[in-house]
Specification:
With 466 residues, the protein is of the alpha/beta class. 25% of the residues lie in helices and 16% in strands. It has twelve helices and 14 strands. The strands form three sheets. An eight-stranded mixed sheet has the order 4-3-5-1-6-9-2-10, with helices on both faces. Strands 11-12-13-14 form a four-stranded antiparallel sheet, covered by helices on one side.
């Protein structure tokens, strides 16, 4: 397992004098659990018919379940870029997942996220936090050996896969998280941990004991595998929650569970067979991907809600209400950096331009409707839509106030939804609300014009020269 001590960050920013931390006392610890392809419906607390997630359900009982949270992309790398930078991933030319160099070049992408960008862990380091990352990285790729390691982005320690260097085995994430929390606690330091679990991304590295749990459930083999890997992930999350209890840190720790995008789904005739990933090894392939969106349109790689509206469960005892469901606050992944920095008492750099806003008041129960600061998405989708993927045609999207506009690559086709009253996107309103279409189309055009034409060559691997 790779467990690296990073050097101190050179760039520091001053702590704010008047912040939420001054009103709540000691700086809270922050544990951000980010799953991979975990659909909104893939929780027993969200009504899944056979998946069992008692530990994540515990977070929902002891915290608030925010139903309107969206990530900044329908796929992995750009979604994670937004969390790290607080900016739309298109600002970094990261519009798809990081793959091997020829694929990145073909899609006008860099080969890794710029390590000189303002990043969440580096900001929290400046506020006195010990920082760590355990689990999936994918802000580069294991097939790009000269890419920066997570240590160069502001982590004191890390163990990761889908990165350069040694690949941490996927199931060691919780154990390493617990070790790090214990060390930070013994030193009296507040901590920030990314626990970015592999599940339920392919390959499905299923453990026999977890399949055994579902042996009498009457499930198909594929459904049994899917339930088993989610059960395993939930158990590991439970181990970390138990460690917080044991160390008497539960009341001092903000815990969030979410996912990088909606669930992956294979074709109707996808076979159940083994596959191999260079970062994580062998396991079952897409035939075992049985995630659900609980009625939302689209799946992974879609800009409809099934691809970007994911679980977001927040527990912060005494600060966030317990046992509540919030179906109105439209929080985005780009909001996490400014939110965590406000909680940590860290001032944002004066030259930094976040796309998100702090959502501390929303977390603490202040009511809101719609989105006052626009959200934008970019993704290279096929047009016209495929019959088998009718909700995977949108290449651009903008949400502002109560409206959501989706557009194909050249904006020759649009759909408009009242995303406040119609979160399942059932009624296209573009014909009856032309003014909203015009306003959002203009906003989208202005945003597209602000984006860089190509990535900086300093973010290219030396493999591009070969």
């Amino acid at each position: 397992m790779l467990f690296v001590l990073a050097g101190a960050a050179e760039s520091r920013c001053a702590a704010a004098e008047d912040t939420v931390t001054s009103s709540v006392g000691k700086k809270p610890n922050i544990l951000f659990i980010f799953a991979d392809d975990w659909g909104w419906g893939d929780l027993s607390c969200h009504g899944h018919p056979y998946v069992r997630t008692p530990n994540i359900d515990r977070l929902a009982r002891e915290g608030t379940d925010f139903e309107r949270f969206t990530v900044a992309s329908g796929v992995c790398s750009p979604s994670r870029t937004a969390v790290m930078t607080g900016q739309f991933p298109a600002r970094h030319n990261i519009d798809g997942h990081f793959a091997w160099v020829p694929s990145n070049a073909k899609r006008n992408m860099p080969d890794w996220l710029d390590p000189s960008a303002v990043t969440l862990p580096r900001l929290l380091q400046s506020g006195g936090y010990k920082t760590a990352h355990f689990g999936k990285w994918h802000l580069s790729n294991d097939m790009i050996p000269d890419s920066p390691t997570p240590a160069e982005y502001g982590y004191d320690r890390y163990g990761a896969f889908n990165c350069s260097g040694e690949q941490m085995p996927v199931h060691e994430d919780a154990n390493e998280t617990i070790k790090f929390i214990e060390a930070a606690h013994s030193e009296g330091d507040p901590f920030f941990v990314n626990l970015w679990v592999h599940e339920p991304h392919t390959p499905f590295h299923v453990i026999p004991k977890y399949r055994w749990r579902f042996r009498h459930s009457g499930l198909s083999e594929a459904d049994e595998i899917y339930a088993a890997v989610l059960s395993h992930a939930d158990d590991r999350i439970g181990e970390v929650l138990d460690a917080l209890d044991r160390l008497k840190l539960t009341d001092e720790t903000l815990v969030i569970f979410s996912s990088d995008n909606g669930p992956a789904r294979g074709s109707a005739n996808a076979k159940l067979e083994l596959s191999y990933d260079t970062a994580t090894g062998a396991g079952f392939g897409i035939g075992a991907a049985k995630g659900i969106t609980a009625g939302r349109k689209g799946y992974k790689a879609s800009l409809f809600e099934g691809g970007i509206n994911v679980p977001f469960i927040v527990r912060w005892p005494g600060k966030v209400a317990a046992g509540e469901t919030n179906d109105s606050a439209m929080i985005s992944a780009v909001d996490l950096l400014p939110t965590f920095c406000e909680i940590a008492g860290v001032k944002l750099p004066s030259a930094y331009q976040p796309d998100g806003v702090s959502q501390v008041s929303a977390l603490q129960g202040q009511s809101s409707t719609g989105r006052t600061k626009p959200l934008f998405w970019k993704y290279g989708a096929r047009w016209p839509a495929q019959k088998s993927r009718p909700h995977h045609w949108a290449s651009y999207c903008v949400v502002n106030e109560r409206w959501k506009l989706l557009a194909n690559q050249d904006s020759s086709y649009l759909e408009l939804y009242d995303i406040v009253s119609d979160p399942y996107e059932s009624t296209d309103l573009k014909e009856t609300h032309p003014n909203a279409v015009s306003k959002l189309s203009e906003q989208l055009a202005d945003w597209k014009a602000s984006l860089p034409e190509s990535p900086d060559s300093k973010l290219f691997s030396s493999l591009r020269k070969n």
